[in-house]
Specification:
There is one protein chain. The chain is mainly alpha-helical. Helix content is about 60%, strand content about 0%. It contains seven helices and no strands. The longest helix is centred in the middle third of the chain and has 20 residues, at about 90-105. It is elongated, with a radius of gyration of 20 Å.
Length: about 150
């Protein structure tokens, strides 16, 4: 796909830069990045412990989201990694809300805890937790808006 080619190009661009007199050695950050990038490009996503990848590689990638001293080149290199996100939890929540919306559109009803469809029970439990969070003031305004949009056909 075009996105994959663009991502691969960006990765090559970042990994091909050289510091005079060295072989791809631009410091420990770049060495760690290249280890993560190798796994990410092979799998099409960031490495996980369940892939048999060492904890230092997985942890390094996760730690970059909290890093405050990244250069623009480093930020661009991370953004080019398959599966990279600055806000993975928010994106996972938004994807789950969209899954709820698609379920409601397809089935014409909310998911049921004792539902028979694949994944329906888990989605029903998630939806229930979001309603409780909203009722107790623990759902952000943005998430409440997205949840209202997802459930507007109920």
């Amino acid at each position: 796909s075009h996105r994959r080619n663009k991502t691969a190009h960006a990765w090559r661009m970042h990994t091909s830069r050289r510091v005079p007199g060295s072989k791809r050695d631009r410091g420990p950050w770049w060495a760690n990045y290249e280890r993560v990038a190798e796994h990410a490009h092979a799998r099409g996503r960031l490495p996980r412990l369940s892939d048999g990848v060492s904890a230092d590689i997985v942890g390094w990638a996760a730690g970059q989201r909290r890093a405050t001293t990244l250069t623009s080149d480093q930020k661009a290199a991370l953004a080019a990694l398959p599966g990279w996100s600055d806000r993975p939890r928010a994106e996972a929540w938004e994807e789950r809300a969209d899954e709820l919306r698609r379920f409601i559109v397809a089935e014409g009803r909310a998911p049921r805890v004792r539902g028979d469809l694949p994944g329906e029970s888990a989605l029903a439990h998630w939806y229930s937790r979001q309603r409780v969070a909203k009722a107790t003031g623990r759902l952000t305004t943005e998430r409440a808006r997205l949840l209202a949009y997802a459930t507007r056909m109920l």
